[in-house]
UniProtKB/TrEMBL annotation, chain A:
Belongs to the ABC transporter superfamily. InterPro entries: AAA+_ATPase (IPR003593), ABC_Ni/Peptide_Import (IPR050388), ABC_transporter-like_ATP-bd (IPR003439), ABC_transporter-like_CS (IPR017871), Oligopep_ABC_C (IPR013563), P-loop_NTPase (IPR027417). This is Peptide/nickel transport system ATP-binding protein. It comes from the Bacteria. It is a peripheral membrane protein. NCBIfam families: oligo_HPY. It comes from Cohaesibacter marisflavi. One of its GO terms (biological process) is peptide transport. The keyword Translocase applies. Keywords: ATP-binding, Cell inner membrane, Cell membrane, Membrane, Nucleotide-binding, Translocase, Transport. GO terms for cellular component: plasma membrane.
Automatic annotation (TrEMBL), chain B:
It is a multi-pass membrane protein. GO terms for biological process: transmembrane transport. Belongs to the binding-protein-dependent transport system permease family. The chain crosses the membrane at residues 49-71, 185-211, 223-241, 247-265, 301-320, 356-376. InterPro entries: MetI-like, MetI-like_sf, OppC_N. Coiled coil: none annotated. CDD domains: TM_PBP2. Residues 181-377 form the ABC transmembrane type-1 domain. It is found in: Cell membrane. GO terms for cellular component: plasma membrane. The lineage of its organism: Bacteria, Pseudomonadati, Pseudomonadota, Alphaproteobacteria, Hyphomicrobiales. Pfam families: BPD_transp_1, OppC_N. This is Peptide/nickel transport system permease protein.
Automatic annotation (TrEMBL), chain C:
It is found in: Cell membrane. PANTHER family: INNER MEMBRANE ABC TRANSPORTER, OLIGOPEPTIDE ABC TRANSPORTER, PERMEASE PROTEIN. This is Peptide/nickel transport system permease protein. CDD domains: TM_PBP2. Residues 103-315 form the ABC transmembrane type-1 domain. It comes from Cohaesibacter marisflavi. The lineage of its organism: Bacteria, Pseudomonadati, Pseudomonadota, Alphaproteobacteria, Hyphomicrobiales. Its main location: membrane.
Length: 333, 391, 331
């Protein structure tokens, strides 16, 4: 339902043009969840904002990028051609693609009730009156597990707890009936126990409503719970992409391997965690060649620091951007 | 110096993995080890508007300080031959040719054919030349050094040069404006200093003591903040006895202005003190038995001096505007003292603007000074706290 | 909400009591007292010689020989209980008579000015924030510096000059000639409105400059909030989005500084009144000060401050109504 190709994102800044996302491509199938995982600053948020033309004024999407979206009626359009304003993009925002953000408090306006903001969204995308919109809002709040929704609908965001707010935010995003839901680290700001509940809720909702979903996180552990496919991002490029099982059990990129080693797990409880050495470089100062070569333990001098690796197929639907595999493939050919 | 700041700034923002030369390394060390004040100064210098404004202020201050030298005549000297006279522009050329020395045309007195009053008309045939560093009226430089030297005068001692014209009594507007600059700026300085001392005491006590003392002080502050300030000043100024000398009035005015200028700054000091009162180093000093005054002055104040300075600079315009407004309506300084407000008192009506617009020149000084103080204040604030406003 | 209102009300009363004390002090400061000035005014030039005893008698008549604290209680008691502000000697009548309908004229000027200020400043401030770093934005920044630097009595003079130049005379004052003493009628009210715009514009000048900067700053902050992006991500049309989300919040600091604006307007009123020839409380206050007619001056100072305190109170209530988070804080 969504197919992204050649997406690069740049920003005009005081220090000149920076390009924190370079040439990424991914795909979301209807009814399936794509997980995007990467350290903070790797460009996950801006990549998904670009999908809805929500970049700030100084952001530019490369002109050769294609964001092909097939809507509920089966029509396919390139969102990159729609521009930032106008009816067409507004129809997609909220009505076709819903979005949930990391900070549940900040994503609500503090001066309107939850109900007010939900009714607004519902009436923008569904042809219903005020009364019906309110009924839908209450139903939606009920569906996301908020008790006493008739009363809650008239509350202000600051009158709710963090977990409740995030549930309300999910209800708000879903109330307009989107076919694709983008969730940008929806559980990061929550307590661990509530995190699990919200995660569970989102998985169930996605299955019940048979939506497509893009789930962003910096936590590979979460991905294995929720995503069917996964894209691993590092410094603005997708270094590995494939079905979640494959990527987790047979990681092909040294970065993914590092992430998995850094993951705590029950059967390795007594081993020390091995974090990836070094710091993530600044996006205004990207290393030449493979962006990961400065921290890679298997770096090939003279190659990785000079040339950008190409996307390689390493399994069915499993691709990687790494010279190690190029060598292997050449050797086996 | 400028290149140091620039290179350092670029070094901080871009962490290019290039090898830096020994010289650059030294510069960088200098940047990292620079004191807070040096950093503020470096940042302030890059604020071009603020630098220009600071230059304007310094220039004005110099004019005021050396008024006796800059002004050709005393503030109350009269030129009865040139009443309500228009500004005289020094020329280099006229219909009789050019000269290297600037000159003005002489003035001859004629009788108005209708009213028979004596009027002065310029005589284009008569040239009077300007001389610089000339000897003229006796004055006392800075108030105590006897001197006769003036920056410029006419070489014909009987004629007078009125760069910005004269008022109805034939007093030189240029000279008066220069003297007024001294009065108005100094009133601002003293007023700000008084309110600074008061703010320090009041805010310091409130912030250090907290509790009910703070509560009472807050109430009083609130009262002063709600009463409209100019009517309040006017009430106090009106109470000055008519028979007071100009000096007494001058000091009373500075007291009045300073006396109500403290609430904003006191509030700032109080809240800063309250917030750092519980910080470790202050608590440690208190536990070690340091006396309150010592704790405030040694430990608490230095940590926000830069804010205080910014607030002080920003409060100047209010002082200057208040003094101008009060004197303008006759409730502030009184003639023969000259201040911008006293001078503008002569320009209260539209008729004056039509007939003798040059009496309005002091207004330009007021606007310029207020503008300059505001811009310098903004520049200082940005320099002291670069993150205050992500402009 | 009730509790919040009561709290503010009590605070307001306490402030007013303290203000009245300060005003009374100011009335007491000028050398000599009311009896001296009364005697001087009444008998100077009449040839009648007055003695200390005469003055002492006057003093006793007016109750001026009582201690200061008692005199304060008398003064404020009469004001609160009987609406009696004491005697004005300039016209030898009650202060209330002297003040007359000037209170309403002053209120007309005040609300005219406030209305004009917000009508100009709010849209422009929002526009400057939305078009940040554009040509218009820089222009407005320069304007607001000028607005703060040009004292409004100078502005008034300049405007008077140009208005005279372009439209001819009769523009100062609050009424056309002949109208000011006429009984109130529709025609008179309309005449007032026609004359109001100039003082309103002059008095609004610096408030506009100040408010534009505040609104621009808050609006810029609000525009960068996640809630705005979130609303945009729900497909809210851009104009509605700007008004409903950031602009709605950018109004808050304006509301919270209403009292401050009123204070500024009253502060500048006497001076502007001199230049524009307005016959309202500011001008009366100035003349009362010049004549040391301290009961009149005290009454006006008290009234002006009361309006400011009242507007502060209203602004607190408005703010609590506008911003649901505030009620939470007070409970
Ligand atoms: N408005 C902006 N202007 C300039 N650069 C930006 C802006 N927004 C994001 N970036 C750049 O994009 C990078 C990636 O940001 P983001 O997508 O938020 O990362 P993530 O969501 O993976 O943590 C940031 O590190 C920053 O350098
Ligand atoms: Mg992010």
């Amino acid at each position: 339902m969504l197919k992204v190709e050649n997406l690069s994102i740049s920003f005009r800044t005081d220090e000149g043009l920076i390009t924190p996302v370079q040439d990424i491509a991914f795909e979301v199938q209807p009814g399936r969840t794509l997980g995007i995982v990467g350290e903070s600053g790797s460009g996950k948020s801006i990549s998904t904002k670009a999908l809805m033309q929500l970049l700030p004024g100084n952001g530019i999407i490369s002109s050769e990028a294609k964001i092909l979206y097939t809507d509920k009626s089966g029509k396919t359009r390139d969102i990159n051609r729609l521009g930032k304003k106008g009816r067409a993009i507004r129809h997609i925002r909220g009505g076709e693609i819903g979005m949930i953000f990391q900070e549940p408090m900040a994503s609500f306006s503090p001066v309107y009730t939850i109900g007010n903001q939900m009714v607004e969204a519902i009436r923008l995308h569904r042809n219903v009156g005020r009364k019906d919109a309110r009924r839908i809002a209450v139903e939606m709040l009920d569906k996301v597990g908020i008790s006493n929704p008739e009363a809650r609908v008239d509350q202000y965001p600051h009158e709710m707890s963090g977990g409740m707010r995030q549930r309300a935010m999910i209800a708000l995003a879903l109330s307009a009936g989107p076919a694709l839901l983008i969730a940008d680290e929806p559980t990061t700001a929550l307590d661990v126990t509530i995190q699990a509940q919200v995660l569970e809720l989102m998985r169930n909702l996605q299955r019940d409503l048979s939506m497509g979903m893009i789930f962003i996180t910096h936590d590979l552990g979460v991905i294995s719970h929720i995503a069917d496919d996964v894209a691993v991002m590092y410094l603005g490029t997708i270094v590995e992409r494939g079905p979640t099982d494959k990527v987790i059990h047979e990681p092909a990129h040294p970065y993914t391997q590092g992430l998995i080693k850094a993951l705590p797990s029950v059967d390795r409880l007594h081993d020390r965690l091995t974090p990836i050495p070094g710091d993530i470089p600044s996006p205004n100062d990207r290393p030449t060649g493979c962006p990961f070569h400065t921290r890679c333990t298997k770096v090939i001098a003279g190659l990785c620091d000079q040339h950008q690796p190409q996307i390689l197929q390493v399994g069915e639907d499993h691709t990687v951007r790494c010279f190690l595999h190029e060598k292997q493939q050449r050797a086996s050919a | 110096m400028a290149d140091i700041t620039d290179t350092c700034a670029s070094m901080v923002t871009s962490t290019k993995g290039k090898k830096e030369s020994a010289k650059e390394h030294k510069k960088r060390l200098k940047y990292y080890s620079a004191s807070q004040w040096t950093l503020i100064w470096w940042r302030f210098r890059r604020h071009r508007a603020a630098m220009v404004a600071a230059a304007v202020l310094i220039f004005m201050a110099l004019l005021g300080i050396f008024a006796e030298f800059v002004a050709p005549y005393g503030p109350t000297s009269r030129d009865t031959k040139y009443l309500d006279g228009a500004p005289q522009v020094p020329l280099f050329c006229d219909q009789n040719g050019c000269s290297w020395r600037p000159f003005v045309h002489g003035v001859s007195t004629k009788r108005d054919p209708v009213t028979l009053r004596a009027i002065s008309v310029p005589d284009p045939e008569k040239r009077v030349y300007l001389t610089f560093f000339a000897q003229g009226e006796k004055t006392e430089l800075l108030g105590f050094i006897p001197s006769k030297t003036h920056f410029f005068l006419l070489d014909d001692k009987r004629a007078k040069l009125h760069l910005w014209g004269t008022d109805d009594l034939g007093r030189d507007v240029f000279s008066r404006t220069i003297y007024a600059t001294r009065t108005s700026l100094s009133i601002g300085v003293i007023g700000v200093l008084i309110s600074f001392v008061l703010a320090l005491i009041i805010g310091g006590v409130a912030g250090y003591a907290g509790g009910w003392v703070d509560n009472i002080i807050q109430r009083v502050t609130e009262v002063i903040r709600v009463v409209p300030i100019i009517p309040l000043y006017m009430g106090l100024a009106a109470a000055m006895p008519k028979e007071w000398s100009t000096t007494e009035v001058y000091f009373a005015m500075t007291l009045i202005l300073g006396f109500f200028g403290w609430p904003t700054l006191a509030r700032r000091i109080r809240s800063q003190l309250l917030s750092i009162r519980s910080e470790d180093y202050v608590v440690a000093a208190r536990l070690a038995g340091a006396r309150p005054l010592r704790i405030i002055s040694q430990h608490m104040l230095p940590s926000f001096t830069s804010f205080i300075i910014v607030d002080l600079v920003i409060s100047f315009p209010y002082m200057i505007l208040s003094e101008t407004a009060l004197s303008f309506v006759g409730l502030g300084l009184r003639p023969p003292t000259v201040s911008w407000g006293v001078l503008l008192q002569q320009a209260q009506s539209v008729r004056v603007i039509e007939q003798t617009p040059w009496l309005f020149i002091p207004a330009i000084f007021v606007v310029l000074a207020v503008l300059a103080f505001t811009v310098v204040g903004d520049g200082l604030r940005d320099a002291a706290d670069p993150y205050s406003d992500a402009r | 909400m009730l509790r919040f209102t009561l709290e503010r009300l009590v605070g307001m009363i306490v402030t007013m009591v303290l203000v009245s004390m300060m005003v009374f002090l100011i009335m007491e400061i000028p050398p000599g007292d009311y009896a001296d000035r009364y005697a001087f005014r009444k008998y100077s030039g009449t040839g009648i010689a007055i003695t200390e005893a005469d003055i002492e008698a006057i003093r006793h008549d007016f109750g001026l020989d009582k201690p200061m604290a008692l005199r304060y209680v008398d003064w404020i008691g009469n004001i609160v209980l009987h609406g009696d502000f004491g005697q004005a000697f300039a016209f030898e009548t009650d202060v209330t008579k002297v003040i007359g309908d000037k209170v309403w004229l002053t209120m007309a000027i005040l609300f005219g000015t406030l209305l004009l200020t917000y009508l100009i400043a709010i849209p422009i401030g929002i526009y400057a924030a939305v078009r940040r770093a554009s040509f218009a934005d820089y222009g407005l920044t320069i304007f607001s510096y000028l607005g703060l630097a040009l004292p409004n009595f100078l502005l008034a003079l300049i405007l008077l000059y140009f208005v005279n130049l372009w439209f001819g005379a009769d523009i100062g004052g609050l009424f056309s000639t002949g109208m000011s003493d006429a009984p109130w009628s529709f025609a008179k009210a309309w005449d007032l409105i026609k004359h109001l715009w100039l003082p309103a514009f002059v008095l609004a000048w610096s408030a506009v400059a100040y408010q534009i900067q505040t609104i621009r700053a808050t609006m810029s902050d609000e525009l960068n909030k996640l809630s705005v992006t979130a609303a945009r991500a729900r497909g809210v049309p851009e104009t509605k989005l700007l008004i409903k989300y950031p602009a709605r919040l950018a109004i808050n600091p304006v509301v919270s500084t209403i009292g401050f604006d009123v204070n500024r307007i009253f502060s500048e009123l006497p001076i502007v009144a001199v230049v524009l020839g307005l016959t309202e409380l500011g001008e009366l206050l100035l003349n009362a000060y010049l004549d040391l007619d301290m009961y009149v001056a005290g009454a006006i100072l008290l009234m002006l401050t009361f309006v400011i305190v009242l507007m502060n109170f209203i602004s607190d209530l408005l703010l609590a109504w506008l911003d649901p988070r505030i009620k939470l804080g007070s409970n």
